[in-house]
Specification:
By secondary structure, the chain is an alpha+beta fold. 37% of the residues lie in helices and 27% in strands. The strands form 5 sheets. It has a 5-stranded mixed beta sheet with strand order 3-2-1-9-10, with helices on both faces. The protein has a 5-stranded mixed beta sheet with strand order 13-12-11-17-18, with helices on both faces. Strands 5-4-6 form a 3-stranded antiparallel beta sheet.
Length: 339
Amino acid sequence: MIGFRSETLALDLGSARTRLYVRGEGVTVDQPTMVGLTAERRPKVHSVGDEAQRLLGSPGGRVRAVRPVVNGAVADVVAAAAQIKSVMRQIGVGGLFQRSVRLVMPAPAGSTAVERESLQDAAISAGARRVYLFEQPLAAAIGAGLPVVEETPQLIAVLGAGVSEIAVLAEGAIIESTTVRVGGDHMNQALIAEILRNHSVLIDEPTADRLKRSIGVARMPQDGDGESATVRGFDVADQKPGEVTVNQREIADCLAAPISALVDALLLTLARVGREQATALVDGGLVLAGGGALLKGLDQALYAATGLPIALAETPALAVIRGVGIVIEETPDLRLLAQ
């Protein structure tokens, strides 16, 4: 249970994962962003996190799995509030004390005013007294250890599940950024569509995600078809359970479109900055953060397309929440974040 002095929390409500950082303790909660709602006229919260995710892909019943956040934005305020409330209860925050909690939450730099308001509404509905939003690319850069307060510009790519952002930072602020609604979830959907089209086997999203993490690649393998894996699904032609073997060449082919979108966003961002800054960025290279940065060969694909040196942040999936965590550790007056 947190103490009164730890009433300020950092919470990253992502499309795929929800993470909580407590002052002096670090990341204490890391769970799927998923809520199970009862199939009623007025749905009730049945489960949150891992338990709710197990419902994904299961046959329809009295409980359905809902994604509170889609494409980096709150899609269901009630479900998002339930997710946040559940996370806070896991560290002992509830009842009257819950109303004293202040949350600092990352938000995509390219999010709209309506999307930011929905994120704040969900947190307030969950019981937070005050919500401060912090630019997600800046948080990732801080979490990755980049010298963001220096004059020399830094280039970072935050590759999430529902949204990805390319940003140029200097002197503690974002100079330029590009947001694309492309991420790990879209790669999963591309895999599902490709396997259905080529093999007439329908797999669910958890299966697609496991396939991507196990043998997914961003570039065509040099040695023929590369590695392969067998996955189970539903054979739509025979109308019964079936399985299919998929190789890395197939995966690289169906991930080409989302990766191309990331390359376009990167080149667009570089084109928007001045020549002097662009030269500095080329020399300094690009740092990859976010869970999407873990896709095998992505660094090589981006280097081949741009010529930029590519580096991977330490534990890229945690860069954003660690960055916001550093902010709450080192910012005594959170009102400064609202300026």
